[in-house]
Structure formats: structure tokens, C-alpha cells
Design brief:
288 residues; 12 strands; NAD(P)-bd_dom_sf; Ergot_Alk_Oxidoreductase
Length: 288
């Protein structure tokens, strides 16, 4: 039995879809199981059990982990991340979970410190010390996060960042989910650290050019300094300060530490990662 923690998230939903396709017994956890059941519709059939659990409620986790031997761990980033995930790892060990697949972040680097990456580094250390078999997935920027630019692209034909002309790794969350599914269903692919990217890197200016061609109108990337971007994300994007700082920090990391694709997706899945062009085409109506 595989327990999926974070089943309503972008990666979690894609993982559930893949596990259903594979017919693998799965227990999907959510604070709002009714919402999850509605999202899944009739796809779950008899292979998925939907259960209520709360990351901050140890008793609900102990119940949810009973009878399972693997855990997919993916929580939304938050200032409580270290506390919640380290507690969850300990509860999983006590409950008899034998293997955890954890969604992490690119490795922490003091040359370009990212607070969230430091949190994940601490959680990874706890996971390693737990003695359980573990697979750590370190994805770079999600293609799905480009959708947050849609409102200003629709209304102003622009989007904003603080990356200059730096090229960035992007990956489709569905590829991350597919790698997780492989690690959960093929023991020989588990127990490793995978750094996950697409097969290409792109600057925001290049993405603006792709969108211009796709939408048949000029789309412009406007570069801002980090502090101006942070203020705008809080004021106009309604982001809490820690999240706005995270967005700015990961963009600063991309500028300070040149990014290049890895072949980890290919090595696990035996195919190329999904392409950015295909992703933008698939979601073109959201930018119009």
C-alpha cells in the first residue's frame, strides 16, 4: 500500500492518476477528502482509498499510515515545513513505513542561499538518519508555475521577474510524478537522489518570444530588481512575505549559479521530459 501525502497538490494529483493507471493500491490523504474525491471523480475505481489526515495531527497520520509500506511526501512549502515533515517522517518510521519518496528542492548552496532549500536540506538529513529507504526528488522550476503569469499576460501583454537574461531549468510536474511512480513501483530505481529538469533551458525573454508566437501578439518580459519584484508580489500578488522572498531568492539563485539540464528523467523513465513548447501550447487558452 502506497500512502500519498499531498494528494491535492499539482504533483500529487498527477501521481495519483499514474498509480491508478498502474492499478497500484493507494491511500490518498487530504484535509478535505470530499474535495479530493470530487477531483478524482470515477477514475479511482477500486485501487484508491481516500482518507482524511492533517499534517499537524499526529493521530490522523498514525491512522493513515497503518498497513502501508511506502509514503509519498509532498507538502506545500511553508514556514512550518521542517517541523511538519520531520514529525511525519518519525511517525512513518514508527508506523512501519519502509520507503519514503520525498519532494525536495534543488540542493542548498551558500553562494545563493534559498531559505526553502535550507529547510529541505534539514528534512533530508532527518530522512537519512531515520534508517528508512528513501528517494529524494529535487526538481527545478515547475512549468506549471508559469501559469501565474497569465493574468498580466492577458490584460497587459507582459510578465515580470528578476532573472535578466539568465536561462533557467523548467520541468513539467507530470514528469516529476512519473519519476515518483517509478521509484514507488520499481525498487531498483528507489533509494537515490534525483535532480529533475527538462531537457532544455530558457530565459524569460525566450519564453516571452514563444508566447508572442503562440498567441499572435507581442508579449514582453519586464525585468525588475529583486526588491521591487518582492514588493510587487506582496502588494499585487497577495503573497505572504516569506513566499515573495522565496520567489526572489530562487530567481537570484538561477542568476548566480548557471543551470543546465540533467538526464535523470531519461534515466528513470527511458524517455525525454515533456517539452516547454508542448506545455505552452496545451495551456495557451489560459494566456489569451
Amino acid at each position: 500500500m502506497i500512502v500519498v501525502m499531498g494528494a491535492t497538490g499539482t504533483i500529487g494529483r498527477a501521481l495519483l492518476k499514474r498509480l491508478i493507471e498502474l492499478g497500484v493500491p493507494t491511500r490518498a490523504l487530504s484535509r478535505t477528502p470530499e474535495k479530493l474525491q470530487m477531483l478524482m471523480g470515477e477514475r479511482a475505481e477500486s485501487t484508491v482509498e481516500v482518507a482524511a489526515a492533517e499534517a499537524s495531527d499526529p493521530e490522523s497520520l498514525r491512522t493513515a499510515f497503518t498497513g502501508a509500506n511506502q509514503l509519498f511526501l509532498s507538502l506545500s512549502n511553508s514556514p512550518d515545513q521542517v517541523e511538519l515533515e520531520t514529525a511525519m517522517i518519525r511517525i512513518a518510521a514508527e508506523a512501519g513505513i519502509q520507503h519514503i519518496v520525498k519532494i525536495s528542492s534543488p540542493a542548498y548552496d551558500e553562494k545563493a542561499p534559498v531559505a526553502v532549500a535550507r529547510w529541505h536540506q534539514e528534512i533530508e538529513r532527518t530522512l537519512l538518519e531515520s534508517g528508512m529507504k528513501n528517494t529524494v526528488l529535487r526538481p527545478y522550476a515547475f512549468m506549471q508555475n508559469l501559469l501565474r503569469f497569465a493574468p498580466t499576460i492577458q490584460t497587459q501583454h507582459v510578465f515580470f521577474g528578476a532573472m535578466g537574461e539568465t536561462a533557467c531549468n523548467f520541468i513539467d510536474c507530470r514528469d516529476i510524478a512519473d519519476v515518483a511512480a517509478e521509484a514507488l513501483t520499481h525498487p531498483e530505481k528507489a533509494g537515490r537522489v534525483y535532480t529533475l529538469t527538462g531537457s532544455e533551458v530558457f530565459s524569460y525573454s525566450q519564453i516571452a518570444s514563444k508566447l508572442s508566437e503562440l498567441l499572435d501578439r507581442p508579449i514582453t518580459y519586464i525585468n525588475k530588481d529583486s526588491e521591487a519584484l518582492r514588493r510587487d508580489l506582496m502588494e499585487y500578488g497577495n503573497m505572504p512575505e516569506w513566499l515573495a522572498s522565496h520567489v526572489v531568492e530562487i530567481q537570484a539563485m538561477s542568476v548566480a549559479i548557471p543551470e543546465k539540464p540533467t538526464d535523470d528523467v531519461w534515466r528513470v523513465l527511458g524517455r525525454e521530459p515533456r517539452k516547454l513548447d508542448a506545455f505552452l501550447q496545451e495551456h495557451s487558452e489560459k494566456f489569451r
